[in-house]
User: What shape does this take?
Amino acid sequence: MDSDQGLFYTILLVGIFLLYSLLRNLNHWIYVNRLGAMKNTLPPGDLGWPLIGNMLSFFRAFKSGKPDSFLGSFTARFGKAPLYRAFLFGKPCIIATSAETCRKVLTDERFGAGWPKSVSDLVGKRGLHGVSNQERKRLRQLIATPVASQEALSIFIDYVDEIARNAFDTWEKTEEPFEFLTEMRKTAFKVMMNIILSDEVTDEKELNRLAHDYTLLSHGLKATPINLPGFAYHRALKARKRLLKTFSASVSKRRMMPKSTEDSKARKDLLTLMMDIQDDEGTRLSDDEIVDLIIIFLIAGHESSGHAVTWTIIFLQEHPEVLQKAKEEQEELVKQRENPAARLTYNEVRQMKYLQKVILETLRLVNLSFALFREAKSDINMNGYTIPKGWRVLPWIRSVHFDPENHENPMDFNPSRLEGEKVKLGTLIPFGAGSRLCPGADLAKLEVSVFLHYFLLNYRLERVNPKSGVEYLPATRPADKCLAKIKKLSYA
Assistant: This one.
């Protein structure tokens, strides 16, 4: 009996070992062995477990509050390298870790958009995320003027200015502590709704409903793509349908509005500009393209801007010397006005040289996006390694921004590091780089600058939990969402 039991346990252990080996190497056999001799020049790394790849270690690192331990495990196992291979978000991929390799990936046209299908399904296949390089160039040409021109930004600043003033006035009168990040995101959403649709949506309940749907959509972008009730991705898809219905109705309403009416002539919002613009061949944006672009702009405009304002104010309060220097710059702008009570202008924002460094340093340190997504359109040799056609490529922004070879004492908040010629090419990429550089980057910085202008001149932040921890998914944020009070400065 003892001999039979021993044989049984031996067979069981051998079976477990063989099953483990099979599962542990299945992705390698499926995706690597078929590459032939090319597999010998792949970057170091491993493809993890079948189906899930390296996602368990990814979520474990980011949800434990130690996001850089994910890439650190690759460095510990395979040594420091500019590229690693892994299996993330449902596909084999190459992680680009150095400033040089990230810059190459972001500027080389052999790499196209590589967002997971789940992301394209949520943000739309007719926007900037899900189209070919050629189609992307066409879209960028068409939206450059409505989104990033000086004329457009000079119009949009009035929407931002009024809402920012009213928001701070309301927050200052709120006696109980509130989640500043939550309120800032709601306010940033209201800003973007006004920029896109001017006063078309004014009902507070409707704005809150749309903002809630956008929150669901944003959470779904970084969730496991399981389309079943109860899962974040399922809720995100349903939210997208509701948003599509709302914005499609707005576009149809504008199409039917006679251009000769006073209301039509007076409208100067992003929707009007996108509907009127045409390329050199006279081609205009289709209604479906406009709706998908609206969804993309709103995601970026209220998520990134809301977080950027919150984090910048937190860092300013924690670094009085930086706050004072930024404040003096804003006070000097006001002194130069004929009317000190006049609204902020776009030309004044362009003069905020130091504040722009403060904002960029915040984005470097916070890393609202841990990586970008590209895909190799052909077999590509880079730094002596092969990137196979069809593999996803992830320029890992965190590794670039936190590399001490790129930024001295990278974990310190130090806007002065961005002065002069101290920034090496490709070492600061919060908005990406190359032809896929975020088209709304200037609009986002404008929005953040306006809010910071009024904060620096008139207010201070009093956090309830100044030592609150940080959460990294779906975006980097204080664990308590910056529970705080806004106080008016005594001399303001």
Summary: The longest helix spans residues 287-318.
